Amino acid sequence: MSSVDARLAELNIVLPEPVAPVANYAPFVVTGNLVFISGQVSIGPNGLVTGKVGAALTIEQGIEAAQACGVNLIAQLKAACAGDLGRVRRVVKLGGFVNCNPDFVDQPKVVNGASDLMVAVFGDAGRHARAAVGAPALPLDAAVEVDGVFEIA
Amino acid sequence: MSSVDARLAELNIVLPEPVAPVANYAPFVVTGNLVFISGQVSIGPNGLVTGKVGAALTIEQGIEAAQACGVNLIAQLKAACAGDLGRVRRVVKLGGFVNCNPDFVDQPKVVNGASDLMVAVFGDAGRHARAAVGAPALPLDAAVEVDGVFEIA
Amino acid sequence: MSSVDARLAELNIVLPEPVAPVANYAPFVVTGNLVFISGQVSIGPNGLVTGKVGAALTIEQGIEAAQACGVNLIAQLKAACAGDLGRVRRVVKLGGFVNCNPDFVDQPKVVNGASDLMVAVFGDAGRHARAAVGAPALPLDAAVEVDGVFEIA
Asked: I need a surface site. Which of A61, B73, B101, C146 has the fewest CB within 10 A?
């Protein structure tokens, strides 16, 4: 078990089985030392978190939704590393899309749910470049979608 | 003629002349083994497909629009490979933006128009990471815009 | 002083102190020869430019906002190069998000504010792949957000 797995256990985070896409795309692609991971939506232990943040959902609920995206990214990343999260060298970039109305301006607070998770799990290697933007609508009305680029050994 | 060109011919896909941007950006940039291709809008044989998917356009029309984006990506990719699509090693990542209203939730179905095309043309090498999100508006009212990252030899 | 710094001076562009994120993410991450820079919002000399382009803001004001994003990207890029912009080999990709209403279709004109700046500053090395899309809302109501990928020596 890598120290990253130990840290996940300390944080009481149980990685889900990484979800296989139902269409003609892949959950991740490895090219050189980089892993590109498909946009992960806010599926948590209780299913998909849906609705517009700042309207149907509070910011706090949005943060939890973004954290769920982050957990799903790490589950895919573990698969990309053939189960060994100790191979992760750096979280390079997260792209966070927040389902919201035109008057919502707190996308950064929401996406922090994913960003804080990466640092909690990977330490300094979890600090990443990111973009956080609003989206008028997301797949299946997901509250948040986050994709990512990672560097692995 | 590469086997990829043969496959395009089997699919009755005629690549358009890759469109040169009218502004200070490039259709693609090659860095190392990666090709970053600019967002391609849904220009098909009959011109630009415009309007919001799920409103002015049906999902089926949206899928065709996404396929047109995919054809345009492959046209640019061929130029990036100096005409030899046999050099393509992997479709790494597609970013799909669907012009839609706030109540539209079928972005994945729409972007499958581009994803399915990649697998039809490149086989297993066409399976890619992707994100599919909604956009409130796209350039020139395009129905879909898709950008991409590819690995070439 | 690199020739790029000289060119910035000719253009009367003063790079701001690169802003450190207030959350658990980084302004940039270097992986191999690539630098991924976080989405930079339209903070100019007079503060954050806010509002929807084509509504609260004219297209011309949107272009200036995108240019401000570009200046902020270059400031982060300089930090990523330990102060030596002569190490920049290529602007690889810009991702431009324009805060707008659903009927706005001139995202490319707006994002040209950042694209033209890159070519003015870096010459041919400034020509990049890009995507330009609309967003219903951006952080702190920023008018424009642009992230980027760059190649450095």
From this structure: B101
* Residue A15 φ then ψ, to 5°: -70, 135
Per-residue confidence band for C20, with pLDDT thresholds at 50, 70 and 90: confident
Assess A56–B contact: CB distance below 8 Å, yes or no. Answer: no
Contact A128 C29 (CB under 8 A): yes
DSSP state of C57: B
Matching residue, tokens 């970013």? B95
Interface contact C145, partner A, CB < 8 A: yes
pLDDT at B19: 79
Q: Does A47 touch chain B (CB under 8 A)?
A: no
- Rounded mean pLDDT of B67-93? 97
Res B84 pLDDT > 80: yes
**Confidence bin at B24 (pLDDT 50/70/90):** confident
Answer yes or no: are the C-beta atoms of C42 and C48 closer than 8 Å.
Answer: yes
User: For testing the chain B interface, which of A25, A29, A76, A146 should be mutated: the one with the most B CBs within 10 Å?
Assistant: A25
The percent of residues in chain A predicted with pLDDT above 90, rounded, is 93
SS3 at position C68: helix
Q: Which fold has domain B3-152?
A: 60s Ribosomal Protein L30; Chain: A; (3.30.1330)
Asked if B107 lies within 8 A of A137 by C-beta distance, the reply is: yes
Q: Among C29, C52, C140, whose Cβ lies nearest the Cβ of A92?
A: C29
CA distances in angstroms from A139 to A4, A51, A145, B133, C105, listed in the order given:
30, 11, 8, 7, 23
- d(CA C120, CA A33) in angstroms, rounded, equals 33
Contact check, Cβ <8 Å, A137/B94: no
List, in order, residues 6 or more apart from B112 with CB less than 8 Å away. A23, A24, B63, B66
CA distance C134 to chain B (A): 5
- The pLDDT confidence band at residue C21, using thresholds 50, 70 and 90, is confident
Asked if B24 lies within 8 A of C103 by C-beta distance, the reply is no
The amino acid at C24 = N
Q: pLDDT digit string (tens) for A77-104?
A: 999 999 999 999 999 999 999 999 999 9
